[in-house]
Design a protein that fits this description.
Blueprint: H1 2-32, H2 34-37, E1 50-53, E2 57-58, H3 66-80, E3 87-88, H4 91-95, H5 104-111, E4 115-124, E5 127-136, E6 142-151, H6 155-169, H7 176-183, H8 190-203, H9 210-226, H10 231-246, H11 253-269, H12 274-288, H13 291-304, H14 309-321, H15 325-338, H16 343-356, H17 360-373, H18 378-392, H19 396-407
Parallel strand pairs: 1-3, 1-4, 2-4
Antiparallel strand pairs: 4-5, 5-6
Length: 409
């Protein structure tokens, strides 16, 4: 009995020691990816060239033209992402602050930015009013403010002017190519651009539901009927076709071919358009499985839009498919700095990549970051359980997750 008791004590001590080592390694893993997992942790001096554009408030009567506020916001982010000297927080991260009353300095710390843009959009009939201001996040001091009273046909001109004024207020000077990329109108038809903004409202909704994709497709096709040279609409339509194919709503060869044709048309019309290269990269990677060609296309998109988190996330996935783990993690790091509150980014390009590398502590830290951002992300809970099982051979965490699922029905 004494021998048995001693053996039991040794087993308890060994298990305690093992759990302690595991805990230390988890903390070490979290520290190894600290900047990715703790945005805003660089210190109190946040750079003026790091900017968050908060969602524009829709003030149109009875919620009409809500698409206009969200579309202007999205396109403003797209324009600013083309400026190499800026760090522009991605749409997924800033959308979390829609309607927020949180103090600006807290938002700035969470996003790691020095300046914040906020504003409102109001449409009455054909009249458009946009109020926008650039604020120093630490002090709340106005760096620049403007009110635009125009017509709906002036939407892109307003976006372009706002982008240029923001850049100037940060002390940066646009290069010739950057200025042209921001100033050149995407279409000569205001009605086509309005349809494009309506399409964006459907295409940016969560879940990639078939009904939303089909509604977006119809609006883009109407826009192109008005202006067949609208390259941005062709690129967006290519992405719609690819999503219809990828999510198996229509996995036909004809649908994949339409994605290729629209992307090629966009590139013929606008050879340097980032969205067109991203769409072509999606075709080569997601349809053809040609990740070398996909990488080449996305690298072109990254040069044209160096601060677009979506491009960096795509690069992270492509590098992973090619087995270039350093490239995958570097792209993930850039995406995480640009979109620090994107749960899907930390789950997939972060957690999955690190788990495939058997860096289980880092993977668990990334999964926990995703879970902190999206507490209902059940896949992240399961991933943590599987990572612990692969790392330590212990199934306790995974069993607890399954038990929680059973309890919830």
């Amino acid at each position: 009995p004494l021998a048995t008791s001693a053996a039991s004590a040794r087993r308890r001590m060994l298990r305690t020691a093992l759990l302690g080592v595991v805990a230390v390694l988890v903390l070490a893993g979290a520290a190894a990816v600290g900047r990715w997992l703790r945005p805003g942790a660089a210190g109190p001096q946040l750079p003026r060239t790091a900017i968050a554009v908060l969602p524009l408030e829709n003030l149109s009567p009875q919620g009409a033209y809500a698409y206009f506020a969200s579309g202007l916001h999205e396109e403003l982010l797209t324009q600013l992402a083309k400026v190499s000297g800026l760090t522009v927080v991605g749409r997924t991260s800033v959308m979390a602050y829609a309607g927020t009353v949180k103090p600006l300095h807290e938002i700035a710390h969470e996003l790691g930015v020095g300046n914040i843009v906020e504003g409102s959009v109001q449409v009455v009939g054909n009249q458009l009013r946009v109020n926008v201001q650039l604020l120093d996040a630490a002090s709340g001091r106005h760096l620049w403010a403007e009110r635009y009273d125009r017509t709906l046909g002036d939407a892109f001109a307003i976006e372009s002017d706002i982008a240029q004024r923001i850049v100037a207020a940060t002390g940066l000077t646009l290069g010739t190519g950057e200025w042209a990329a921001i100033a050149a109108p995407p279409t000569v038809r205001a009605d086509a651009y309005d349809l494009y903004l309506q399409a964006l409202d459907y295409l940016r909704r969560a879940g990639n539901e078939r009904a939303d994709l089909e509604a977006g497709q119809q609006l883009l096709e109407r826009a192109l009927a008005l202006d067949s040279s609208f390259a941005l609409a062709h690129a967006s339509l290519a992405t719609v076709h690819w999503h219809m194919y990828w999510f198996r709503y229509d996995p036909s060869a004809a649908r994949a071919e339409r994605a290729r044709q629209e992307a090629e048309t966009a590139l013929r019309l606008a050879p340097s358009l980032p969205a067109a290269h991203l769409a072509m990269g999606a075709y080569y990677g997601g349809v053809r499985g040609d990740y070398r060609r996909a990488l080449a296309e996305c690298n072109i998109a990254a040069r044209a839009a160096p601060n677009d988190a979506r491009v960096q996330a795509a690069l992270a996935t492509i590098h992973r498919h090619l087995g270039d783990w350093d490239g995958a993690l570097a792209a993930f790091g850039r995406a995480a700095r640009l979109d620090p509150r994107n749960a899907g980014l930390f789950f997939d390009q972060g957690g999955l990549t690190l788990r495939l590398l058997r860096r289980y502590g880092d993977a668990i830290a990334a999964y926990r970051r995703a879970l902190a951002l999206a507490p209902d992300l059940l896949a992240a809970r399961l991933a943590i359980g599987w990572a612990y099982a692969a790392w330590t051979g212990q199934l306790d965490t995974l069993r607890a997750v399954w038990a929680g699922m059973d309890a919830q029905g």
